[in-house]
Amino acid sequence: MPVTIIDRLPLPNLKVYSAGSVLLFSVAVYYAVNITSDPNWRVNATLQRFEVDSDGKKENAEAVSGVSPVAFNVTRNLTEQVLEVMTFMMHEPLCMWTLINSAYCALVAAYAGVLRGVFGRLRAHEAQRAKDKLWNYVFNKFMFVFGVLNVTFLDEVLLWLAWSSLVAALMLLTQLCKDRAEYGAALLLETAHVAHMVAHSSALLSMSSLVLLLQLRHLLRSLLARLRRHRLYAALATHMSRNYPMASPEEVKNHEDKCAICWEPMKEARKLPCAHLFHNSCLCRWLQQDASCPSCRRPLSTRPAPHTAHAGPSQLFHFDGNLQTCG
């Protein structure tokens, strides 16, 4: 339910968010430079501490820096000016929140760059799993910080926020790595491990060797089945790209309907010979089970299937019940 609500919010894309963050950061820096250009900016009333007496009245205390006014003819080098600008921005609330937003923008941009450079375009199920995992993590961390630890100070909240953001980014990247490479890598390592134990077994016909050989046979069959499903997936992707082109933006807009498979709005879609439109990933999963149009049941096979007495569902690519997800 929370993910559905978030999906409906008009959140800006990365380009708009980055442009807005850069603009806000530039305005904050300009404001800080303009304020700190005055040598006596430290005695400004907005940066002074106040003490509350017993009557509830505020009494002006010493300035934050605790220094006396400086003459206007004092020259400062670039390092001192940068340090003063940073000091002012750390004490000014608006500038402080702008810095926090800029740090988050840099983190999101770095995360998007890693995704584009390493993983490329995410598949539909990968993006959905990452989104679900992110919002579950945000909810759990919120309950932990404010419900279990009962953090009330702003500096502690900011520290927990920064740490949780870094962990969330690493967690999502790890999840994507697991979705794409863990199964195949783990299967290869386990097969090599069992083969190594069989090769170095002391007794060739011992009971342990028989158990290892049976396990190795199961692993090899699983690995071959995985390779076969990958070849079928590649053939299915090639078949879809050749026979079912992507619909133009005008066709998708004029269609004004949801995907008949997942009932979600369509921004991009593939067009079947019967002029029905579907999501690419939805159509890929459908064709793994039945080679007909999901709406009108028109056969989609480009070659005639041999007639058999006990014909099952029409399938271009038989995946043995193991569905592959298309991007």
Structural account:
- The chain is mainly alpha-helical and 327 residues long.
- It has 3 domains: 120 residues, no CATH class; 79 residues, no CATH class; 103 residues, Zinc/RING finger domain, C3HC4 (zinc finger) (Herpes Virus-1, 2-Layer Sandwich), CATH 3.30.40.10.
- A two-stranded antiparallel sheet has the order 1-2.
- β1 and β2 form a beta hairpin.
- α3 packs across α4, α5 crosses α6 and α6 crosses α7.
- The protein is extended and about 80 Å long.
- The N terminus is likely disordered.
- This is RING-type domain-containing protein.
- One of its GO terms (biological process) is endoplasmic reticulum unfolded protein response.
- Keywords: Membrane, Metal-binding, Transmembrane, Transmembrane helix, Zinc, Zinc-finger.
- Pfam families: zf-RING_2.
